[in-house]
């Protein structure tokens, strides 16, 4: 595996993480992280959508008229999102019910369009697919970390099983509310920038 | 080829849109029967959960759920605003009144015009009545199961379209919220038939505690329950008035004819 490929895979996880470095997709990371399970399924759906949309857009990249490229990208992303929703409804109804509106909201996730615009339109299909998938993973990673703390401290459970609540922990209502997710995100960004000094702004 | 010419752009976008529309139409048509079967099984599983035939998570298999329903249902019908049965639901086919229809009915109840009120009666005497209303972000609906005295609640189940997970979503996900219902009563008298209140529901025969941090959703469920219980009032009172002997083949519904005789 060459250097460039390696960077495509590893960069979105840490150095170029879509949430903590590029600060994209913040809205959904506040909305779906109240419970760990929702965060996890949302992460998987986003990985699917970013991967496939990047792949399709990369295949079409030489034919897309540049003046309407955003619209074409949007159509492709919307197609993928509706496909995910329809397939979940038919084959995994329970999961679809849990995610309800958030599946549809993947369309508005800046990461999907951002990666198509920044990477897929200028690269071959396979690296684009990888880039899409790994950015989804980078996004999902933060989601799961925030979801872990919010569910643990807010409801005292993990995946719905009592953990802290079993040992007499009093649930912290603030953690359930979206502002606390922003504070957790801030903490993650803080930790990352103190490890990785070159990200700090002078 | 010049990909930036106007002609190319128009043709390209048209082709892409038509293709995508065709793919989506095809997928939607192919998956529709499956999705509808899932929805029906979901509705039935919610009814069964409300009637305390098992936890919601135990109804995973569509066929098993529908078969269980068929074996245990005694009578399923639609009653009108006056409390008399207007039509029967096909029990052999496990026909249920879908949530989307409840939406229109909800509107009709508020307007006071003609309504269709689905009633499910099981072999053990439990009657399940659906409710439907508005939460914070979208519709909320559910099922209230009454024991054979049509007063004591044996259980309830709620669902929602887009309430906040961890807050309003608790009407569905939190067993503690639903767990408050069994043993409570529906009281038709002065005031509301059932109450969801902010604290202090301990001593109330017909009240439960609302969800912390989800006032709008709790109020929505409270309103939904009361609108529908009010609509069902003629039916429930008429049923209560008749001394009912549990018959071999289930419990007969009142019809207009039998009353006139």
Please summarize what this structure is.
Chain A has 202 residues and is mainly alpha-helical. Chain A is built from ten helices and two strands, in the order ααααααααββαα. In chain B, the strands form two sheets. Chain B has a six-stranded antiparallel sheet with strand order 2-1-3-4-5-6, with helices on both faces.
In words, what does this structure look like?
The complex is a heterodimer of chains A (202) and B (261). Chain A has helices at residues 3-10, 26-31, 36-60, 69-91, 93-99, 101-105, 110-118, 125-155, 173-176, 178-195; strands at 157-158, 161-162. With 202 residues, chain A is an all-alpha fold. Chain A has one domain. Chain A has a two-stranded antiparallel sheet with strand order 1-2. In chain A, helix 1 (3-10) packs parallel to helix 8, helix 3 (36-60) runs antiparallel to helix 8 and helix 7 packs antiparallel against helix 8 (125-155). Chain A starts with a helix and ends in a 7-residue tail after the last helix. With 261 residues, chain B is an alpha+beta fold. Chain B has helices spanning 6-50, 62-72, 99-111, 170-173, 175-178, 215-241, 256-260, and strands at 73-79, 85-88, 117-122, 127-134, 139-146, 153-160, 195-197, 207-209. In chain B, a hairpin with a 4-residue loop joins strand 4 (127-134) and strand 5 (139-146). In chain B, helix 1 (6-50) crosses helix 2. Chains A and B meet through helix 4, helix 5 and helix 8 of A and helix 1 of B.
């Amino acid at each position: 595996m060459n250097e460039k490929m390696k960077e495509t895979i590893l960069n979105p996880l840490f150095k170029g993480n879509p949430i903590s470095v590029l600060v994209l997709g913040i809205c959904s990371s506040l909305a779906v992280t109240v419970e760990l399970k929702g965060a996890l399924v949302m992460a998987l759906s986003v990985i699917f959508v970013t991967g496939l949309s990047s792949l399709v857009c990369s295949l079409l990249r030489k034919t897309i008229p540049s003046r309407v490229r955003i619209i074409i990208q949007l159509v492709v992303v919307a197609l993928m999102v509706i496909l995910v929703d329809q397939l979940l409804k038919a084959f995994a109804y329970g999961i679809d019910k849990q995610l309800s509106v958030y599946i549809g909201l993947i369309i508005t996730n800046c990461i999907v369009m951002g990666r198509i615009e920044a990477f897929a339109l200028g690269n071959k299909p396979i690296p684009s697919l990888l880039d899409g998938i790994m950015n989804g993973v980078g996004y999902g990673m933060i989601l799961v970390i925030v979801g872990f703390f919010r569910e643990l401290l807010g409801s005292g459970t993990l995946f719905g099983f009592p953990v802290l609540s079993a040992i007499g922990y009093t649930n912290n209502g603030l953690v359930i509310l979206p502002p606390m997710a922003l504070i957790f995100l801030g903490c993650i960004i803080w930790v990352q920038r103190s490890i990785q000094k070159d990200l700090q702004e002078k | 080829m010049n990909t930036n010419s106007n002609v190319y752009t128009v043709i390209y976008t048209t082709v892409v849109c038509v293709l995508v529309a065709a793919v989506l139409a095809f997928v939607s048509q192919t998956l529709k029967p499956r999705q509808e079967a899932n929805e029906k099984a979901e509705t039935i599983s919610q009814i069964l959960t409300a009637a305390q035939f098992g936890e919601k998570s135990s109804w995973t298999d569509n066929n098993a759920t529908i078969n269980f329903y068929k074996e245990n249902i005694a009578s399923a019908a639609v009653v009108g605003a006056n409390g008399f049965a207007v039509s029967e639901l096909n029990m052999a086919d496990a026909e249920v009144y879908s949530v989307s229809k409840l939406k229109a009915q909800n509107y009709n109840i508020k307007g006071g015009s003609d309504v269709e009120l689905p009633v499910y009666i099981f072999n053990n005497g439990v009657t399940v009545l659906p409710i439907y209303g508005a939460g914070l972000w979208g519709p909320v609906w559910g099922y209230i199961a009454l024991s054979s005295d049509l007063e004591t609640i044996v259980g309830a189940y709620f669902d929602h379209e887009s309430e906040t997970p961890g807050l309003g979503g608790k009407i569905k996900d939190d067993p503690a919220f639903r767990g408050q219902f069994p043993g409570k009563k529906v009281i038709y008298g002065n005031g509301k038939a059932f109450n969801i209140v902010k604290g202090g529901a301990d001593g109330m025969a017909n009240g439960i505690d609302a969800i912390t941090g989800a006032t709008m959703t709790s109020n929505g469920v409270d309103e939904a329950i009361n609108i529908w219980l009010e609509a069902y009032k003629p039916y429930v009172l008429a049923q209560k008035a008749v001394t009912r002997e549990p018959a071999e083949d289930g419990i007969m519904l009142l019809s207009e004819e039998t009353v006139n005789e």
